[in-house]
Model the fold of this input.
Amino acid sequence: MNAAPKPRVYSAVQPTGNLHLGNYLGAIKNWVDLQDGYDCLYNVADLHAITEQQDPAALRAHTRSVAACLLGAGIDPERSILFVQSHVSGHAELAWIFNCVARLGWLNRMTQFKDKAGKHRENASAGLYVYPNLMAADILLYKASHVPVGEDQRQHLELCRDIAQSFNSQYGTQTFPLVEPLILGVAARVMSLRDGSRKMSKSEPSDASRINLTDTAEQIQTKIRKARTDPDPLPGAPGGLDARPEARNLVGIYAALGNKTPAAVCAKFDGAQFSTFKEALADLTVAALAPITREMDRLLRDPGHIDTVLAAGAERARDLAAPVLAEVKHTVGFLPG
Ligand code: TYM
Done:
């Protein structure tokens, strides 16, 4: 008897710069773990990256280095499909169909567009505005049901559900599943090391605000030593972190990296000064990231190998996408080509 098919996972990261600890703890660490129970597709979202201007040479370099980072973190290209978004044209084709399903009112509510477009809304690209439609196309091109992401992507996944539901009801079909966000662990929203009210981000001008997965041990130690905190010692329980966003963030990072609960971390460091805690946190961070950085460096010495892995992933992804795209085109009334 055949085993029941595993539920399908899809997720992606943009190659707009170096990956950081927020990407790792909010998403990639979970992607690695999910490989055991799910049929996983992991993607480097270069079509999303160009919604804001990119230097072409830097985009190429970041696309390879993000792929190397995912491999270094433990994405196994035999078990999972690892590929580049622009290598599978179905993403752009389905996104166009979804541009005709999503309503302007839904897109107008997207907080990420408002944040990214800022005061220069009139100058933002049309691509940035329809960015969530392309995300929905990414996921639904494979009829994925589970999407592991950090907290900041929740609203986009709600839009993906709206699009799936609207498509199904408009055409009277059950074509698309309603996706479940997998927002896992205590570090679904890692904050800046300089300001506990802002999330850790690639686009933050200060490099001291984030730990990059390419940072050396010394850089990590310095950034953690200089991370903003308050003068109080660590509390014995997480309740004592209320209204202490920077302290809460560092405890959350320790908990996520050490696979512990914040309560266990507080109990361990009850009453310790932050100088002591930061040393332990820096050691833990270096120990967790060094093997990833080392493997990433090794892989980047052979870009041809990375390209081969990505080409094989794209081929497998195209095979999965083709019947879904054919079904959707038939449903909307396109003639077979
Ligand atoms: P991106 O490239 O901004 O981030 C990749 C993943 O990292 C998570 N993340 C964080 N998690 C915790 N704390 C943080 N400070 C932090 N910063 C980033 C993000 O939530 C994300 O899971 N639009 C997506 C890429 C994408 C996608 C998709 C995701 C394209 N298509 C389809 C899921 C499904 C993005 O820009 O992620």
